[in-house]
Amino acid sequence: MKSKLLITCLLLTGAATATFAQEPVDTAMIRKIRQEGLNNSKVMETAFYLTDVSGPRLAGSPGLKRAQNWAVSQLTKWGLVNAKNEPWGKFGKGWEVQKNYAAITVPYYHALIAIPKAWTPGTNGAIKSEVILIKADTITDLDKYKGKLQGKVVIFDTKNTLKPGFEADAERYADSSLNKMAAEKPQARRTPNANNMQNPRMVAALKARALRNAINAFLKDENVGLILSMARGTDGTVFTTNGASYADTAKVVALELETSGEDYLRIVRLLKAGQKVEIEADIKTEFFTADLQGYNVVAEIPGTDKKLKEQVVMLGGHLDSWHAATGATDNAAGSAVMMEAVRILKAVGFKPKRTIRIALWSSEEQGLHGSRNYVLNHFGDPKTMQLKPEQGKVSAYYNLDNGTGKIRGIYLQGDSAAGPVFSAWLAPFKDLGANTLTISNTGGTDHLAFDAVGIPGFQFIQDPLEYGTRTHHTNQDTYDRLIEDDLKQAATIVASFVYHTAQRKDMIPRKEQPKPQGTN
Amino acid sequence: MKSKLLITCLLLTGAATATFAQEPVDTAMIRKIRQEGLNNSKVMETAFYLTDVSGPRLAGSPGLKRAQNWAVSQLTKWGLVNAKNEPWGKFGKGWEVQKNYAAITVPYYHALIAIPKAWTPGTNGAIKSEVILIKADTITDLDKYKGKLQGKVVIFDTKNTLKPGFEADAERYADSSLNKMAAEKPQARRTPNANNMQNPRMVAALKARALRNAINAFLKDENVGLILSMARGTDGTVFTTNGASYADTAKVVALELETSGEDYLRIVRLLKAGQKVEIEADIKTEFFTADLQGYNVVAEIPGTDKKLKEQVVMLGGHLDSWHAATGATDNAAGSAVMMEAVRILKAVGFKPKRTIRIALWSSEEQGLHGSRNYVLNHFGDPKTMQLKPEQGKVSAYYNLDNGTGKIRGIYLQGDSAAGPVFSAWLAPFKDLGANTLTISNTGGTDHLAFDAVGIPGFQFIQDPLEYGTRTHHTNQDTYDRLIEDDLKQAATIVASFVYHTAQRKDMIPRKEQPKPQGTN
Predict the structure, then answer these.
(1) Predicted complex: ipTM over 0.90
(2) What Gene Ontology molecular-function terms does this entry list (chains A, B) (predicted)?
């Protein structure tokens, strides 16, 4: 597979053969990093404090604050400097669940697996009510419910069903998948989705969303007690989302419980068959408005080279999570690996030429707010491409946010000139399963904030494991999902990448800079 | 695959070629049965009433009583006669969950997925307590906890971990698996496990069980508030068991919550790291002692042949379930299929020569009590092999209790002479995937009660699907697990088997009769 890969790289990078051959690799330091990262790892202990001890880390919540404070303190203990919670601007309200109980009591007792949607209110004490089935294809279909829903629990008719699990939840990338990635062609930088309205599925989804929003507004006006909506997931796994805006000016919405498919469908079937269903619930949620700021954790290993110390290598991942579990794979894993990478570099006594800066973002789940605002505050505005001087001093940003899976390579994000560099840096980790370069972009996480202002931002390729099927955004994203060997491997490789980026003669080569939005 | 199968049958049955060739099959009736079973099915409606409408059907519970009453009424509506709840003897106390809430409140709030063990008491109102970690390898290790556990929540240290799901939950039998079953050699009738004490794993398990029982007795004496034990299962799926005897004379035990692996391990990790954990819980369970009898649902399609109507074909499955879900695959599926089979036979206007009797057993989950006592009451005592005349009049008993999977064939349970008969009866259903005969025994369910007194008792081979991995005995065994096409197929094949057994010139050939226990 390696030879194929090299051929791919050469094809992609054109006349890069010489560069490739010359890219220096510090094998003595890699030995030390491997020794520390694979044999003296603290990554599981770090992950434990970020998950089990801190709890759910929804943006603005006390859980996130606990994790941020612990991280600042721990990074300082490891010898990093300037460790702090750096405000990035106004986020909005914090929110957490303080009681979560719901059960059907008629036709018999059964406790539900159901999670309040983020930023929804509580029941204001225990409630008990029959459940009303709402059938509405248009907003006018709601007329028949007018005046009848005060204090009631409502549920929506659905055609959804659950499927048996004929496919495994967890997988590692097969060689064939990695080869396919390696053979990808360069893609255009993503622009805002102008063409989405041509996509019939997107149009249908937007229409359904608009109807649902209108229904929810109607239900709020009717003073319903509780809305049940069907969660994605099965077997007790519930994927969670937000149910309201976190803006401090946002209107109060009705309480909405994301209900496990099994519990939801049972209630719908009973109601459709004319059976009465009653529910009791006691939900308490709390909003936090004393501090509407968002914060990122930032800390540094200062550079020591007189000329190069003004330049920066950044690494990070988002620390915030959803609220129904402890966000182990999304993204305590990435945060713990990045913290472990800097710990390794401190432990091996590394004094970098360039400054190393770790950042643990917040509000990634609401739209990469932590990283985007950090970039805006420090490097420039991607809309206007008005850049600050610091934009020119960041060699690269490395991100990790695809779960607990070990590193299999790196997305070049279109930066073909970085290919030979990374190829040389990955080579010593072939035995750990990491040797794929793909020119392609990956999205959905914080490296995009850097890429948007022309700073090389990279996300590693990670084995998917159960990320899409069971863990990310679910009530099952707990410490138990973390795979120790994978996290150790990832931290070791990231440490080596950061080391080499800090010591490299030049900064990581950049691709063509983005244009101001609207000038394309 | 078929030709291989025939060869196997011939080998197994010796000089059975002639019998095989002559076994009559009524293709006209099979056409009618298929039409009714595959195109006019009511099996999902039946399953809905047994699961969603009746609720959990633990032995002795109101949920089981609801299902039994509904089944008696429905069988009568379909034109069966003598439908009744037939008492089989003393079972013990009924029990059901009436409130089920538990959450950690320190170090932060998180509601647990945890199920009371069957026949355990409640908390007698809401409780709140710190959690104490119990480390005990021997009973004397408990001394250090004496006098310290009053009202406390306790949890046990464990080395258990959870694993990622690299294998699919659901599978159908591959041809290779079916071929292997078809090639099995005859096995001896199972005797009580005399050799188990030679088995080191069994010895270790018994020792662990004895320690755990001693610990629980200690904890009860210490008046603990609540015991948390780690459930099998992951991703929100909890396998449930009983936590106390259902005997009306049984001593009260401490409340024990079978806690999802994720929630359990989080608490253990926190406590082991010296973090304080507090729990609030409100568990209400109710015992039912007004009627300690067990009941089976029994109903008949009376035979019409002057000589043969005294003879009986029986079919059945157990109707009772565990308590945390609605026992859809264990065993509403088998019950609904057997009910559907007799509905089909009534719907096609069949007037059987022999009497057809359906039985839906109870207390199967506690040791096949319903079927064993039925057999004892009607047919004889397997211990002494003192038989009643009716034992000689039952041609065969067909059972279904391996989940929602369609029928792939039948276990001959050592009755080689039945092989050619069933081979001929399966042949018209090859297109539906059912064409495997295996001489081998299968266990764990109610056909064993018949086999034990020498009545041919058979369980069909069924595709496993998610039975062992997700559904049986779990909080996820709900209607959603049922696969409509599989249940239709099974009912159609069972109806045909029952039809042919009712009309056959002779009764199903029997294997050698069992000897009285202890005379082997």
Answers:
(1) yes
(2) carboxypeptidase activity; metal ion binding; metallodipeptidase activity
